[in-house]
């Protein structure tokens, strides 16, 4: 891994003329008079680009590939759980034990893929593309570091998935939490490669966070101050601060785990170390990670929902303050994942108090969203439907989380499917819904075209029905004491209602396939509309005459007016609204002749 990173560094330092264009004129890169040339053609453009918009598109494509992989993994798992015994995966892998191992590998891959390879990168796709546009910046503060941060991700994904593809390797079977001593003692190099790949994704996220903090602090336009900074940029700034404090700790813990696995150290060993130490280190990262994932989607909803409510976001300052409050409190709740580990009751009580308190700023946001819609002129477009779906699912996920924050209830429901249902109401029911709202709202900027509205609503309703059918069934499974992470549940019916458990698993599996059907509709709609959708002007949502017309659409409208995409001929018109150098030189010559 060290050799690989050194090779990447040397390749980047020796690359000649990497930046052959300026994505926005006056970008502040290089010396004054820097010559503006068009972007290279074809694959070279995407391999060498440092334009924040191109990198945002690369993040989006990468996240969609990971989303497909994680979705296929969970469909295989849910198909297996349709019946109590090991039927499907056992037949595929060649035996019950092999089927159990494959299930555990899919479970591990699904969790890590959705959180680290889909969740964080899809947010980076939005933030890379739109934060510079929203704050009036020419580009990110460090464009090349921005590119490096992305290109660390594909090798990270290959390492995480290597156990499924490389002959002789077995996929990691540790679950995404990698609890010791299991993760320290599990044989095979698949787990080592997964840990290395996860470490690369953490390095990538940390580099991106530093870049966003520097960009928002130093690259804002003259007319953008802290008072009128948009809510999405506020959430990205807060998220970046969380990443800066949380991800390096995860990286340190992963290095210690690798040392335990390969060099005989005893950081997390039962003799000489402490398996509980891993839980403290992991969850000190892991719970801020939940807010790292959910704060930017909250920002997307806070930004998009007012556009289709016909009024400004209610209580803008309180939404900002609640965002900052969540960022601070998120580092004081990690041990609520550990109530059943035997820690001191006084420590448990303090973490319960903070875990209950952090629900308050989340509730503030929820009431602000509802009040924004109250008596508004609602337009039920696809972005608005997904915003409303976000609020609905977030309330269910949040309330079930408040129950888990109470020690007596958590001791009963810990490590049951109730926890899985709660967590997925947040991750899929809230985060993914906000992502879809942003994708539909900004689709005209990505493509210059409009999607098929009827298919978009089919996508929403299938996703909404599938989400609630799947994860509400999991909540009920938790109340029936069904433990998580099990590939079979062929227990004695005298112990628990086996028929009820089987029926709820079948409902969850049916909901998962309805969810998958909705995502197929979304992919078909986006790809087809990209090529065949009707072209739109710079104001596809009819917001030009209101105070809700955003800076990103102002930029988009200027781009359409110049009739030159990135890579246009610089001698005709400047790229992305910049100053035409030829015209500027002629103007200077005219002034000198007048003098």
Question: What does this protein structure show overall?
Answer:
With 595 residues, the chain is mainly α. 68% of the residues lie in helices and 0% in strands. The chain contains 21 helices and no strands. The longest helix is centred in the first third of the chain and has 40 residues. The protein is globular, with a radius of gyration of 25 Å. It starts with a helix and ends with a helix.
Quick rundown:
It contains 21 helices and no strands. It is mainly α. The protein is globular and about 70 Å long.
Question: Segments where pLDDT lies below 50 for 5+ residues?
Answer: 16-36, 564-595
Number of strands: 0
Helix-strand topology string? HHHHHHHHHHHHHHHHHHHHH
**Largest sheet composition:** none
Global geometry: globular
- Helix and strand composition category: mainly alpha
DSSP summary: helix tally:
21
Mean pLDDT: 89
The helicity comes to 55-70%
Q: Whole-number radius of gyration?
A: 25 Å
This entry's quaternary arrangement is single chain
- Approximate strand percentage: under 5%
The N- and C-terminal alpha carbons lie at a distance of 63 Å
Organism: Halomarina rubra
Subcellular location: Membrane
Pathway: Energy metabolism; oxidative phosphorylation
Biased composition (Acidic residues): 567-595
List the SSEs and their pairings.
Layout: H1 2-14, H2 42-48, H3 52-80, H4 88-93, H5 96-135, H6 143-151, H7 153-165, H8 182-185, H9 190-218, H10 231-262, H11 275-304, H12 316-329, H13 345-357, H14 359-373, H15 382-405, H16 407-413, H17 417-447, H18 453-479, H19 498-532, H20 551-562, H21 581-594
Organism: Halomarina rubra
Protein name: cytochrome-c oxidase
EC number: 7.1.1.9
């Amino acid at each position: 891994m060290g050799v690989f990173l050194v090779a990447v560094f040397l390749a980047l330092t020796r690359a000649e003329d990497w930046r052959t264009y300026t994505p926005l004129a006056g970008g502040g890169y290089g010396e004054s008079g820097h010559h503006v040339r068009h972007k290279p053609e074809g694959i070279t453009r995407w391999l060498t680009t440092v334009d924040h918009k191109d990198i945002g598109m690369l993040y989006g494509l990468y996240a969609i590939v990971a989303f497909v992989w994680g979705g296929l993994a969970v469909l295989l798992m849910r198909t297996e759980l349709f019946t109590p015994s090991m039927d499907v995966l056992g037949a595929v892998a060649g035996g019950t034990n092999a089927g159990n191992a494959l299930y555990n590998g899919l479970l591990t891959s699904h969790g890590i893929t959705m959180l680290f390879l889909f969740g964080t990168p899809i947010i980076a796709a939005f933030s890379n593309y739109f934060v510079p546009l929203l704050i009036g910046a020419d580009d990110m503060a460090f464009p090349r570091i921005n590119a490096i941060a992305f290109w660390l991700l594909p090798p990270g994904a290959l390492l995480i998935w290597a156990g499924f593809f490389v002959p002789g390797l077995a996929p990691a079977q540790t679950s995404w939490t990698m609890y010791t001593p299991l993760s320290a003692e599990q044989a095979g190099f698949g787990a080592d490669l997964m840990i290395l790949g996860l470490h690369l994704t953490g390095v990538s996220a940390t580099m991106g966070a530093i870049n966003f903090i520097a960009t928002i602090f130093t690259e804002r336009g003259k007319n953008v101050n802290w008072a009128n900074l948009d809510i999405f940029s506020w959430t990205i700034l807060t998220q970046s601060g969380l990443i800066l404090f949380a991800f390096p700790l995860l990286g340190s813990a992963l290095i210690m785990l690798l040392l335990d696995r390969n060099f005989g150290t005893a950081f997390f060993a039962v003799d000489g170390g402490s398996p509980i130490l891993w839980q403290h280190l992991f969850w000190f990262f892991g719970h801020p990670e939940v807010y790292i994932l959910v704060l930017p989607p909250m920002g997307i909803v806070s930004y998009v929902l007012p556009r289709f409510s016909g009024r400004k976001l209610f209580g803008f300052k309180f939404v900002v303050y609640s965002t900052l409050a969540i960022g601070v409190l998120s580092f004081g709740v990690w041990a609520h994942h550990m109530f059943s580990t035997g820690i001191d009751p006084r420590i448990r009580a303090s973490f319960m108090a903070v875990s209950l308190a952090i629900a308050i700023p989340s509730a503030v946001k929820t009431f602000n969203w509802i009040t924004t819609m109250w008596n508004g002129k609602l337009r039920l477009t696809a972005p608005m439907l997904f915003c409303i779906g976000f609020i609905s699912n977030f309330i269910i996920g949040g309330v079930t989380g408040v129950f888990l924050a109470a020690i007596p209830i958590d001791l009963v429901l810990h490590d049951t499917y109730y926890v899985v249902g709660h967590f997925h109401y947040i991750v899929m029911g809230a985060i993914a819904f906000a992502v879809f709202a942003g994708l539909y709202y900004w689709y005209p900027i990505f493509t210059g075209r409009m999607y098929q509205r009827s298919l978009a609503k089919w996508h929403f309703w299938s996703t909404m029905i599938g989400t609630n059918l799947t994860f509400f069934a999991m909540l009920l499974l938790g109340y029936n004491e069904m433990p998580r992470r099990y590939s079979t549940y062929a227990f004695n019916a005298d112990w628990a209602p086996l028929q009820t458990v089987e029926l709820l698993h079948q409902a969850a599996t049916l909901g998962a396939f309805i969810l998958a059907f909705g995502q197929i509709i979304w992919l078909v709609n986006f790809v087809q509309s990209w090529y065949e959708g009707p072209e739109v002007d710079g104001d596809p949502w009819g917001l030009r005459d209101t105070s809700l017309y955003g800076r990103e659409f102002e930029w988009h409208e200027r781009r359409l007016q110049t009739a030159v995409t990135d890579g246009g001929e610089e001698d005709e018109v400047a790229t992305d609204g910049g100053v035409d150098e030829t015209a500027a030189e002629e103007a200077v010559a005219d002034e000198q002749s007048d003098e």
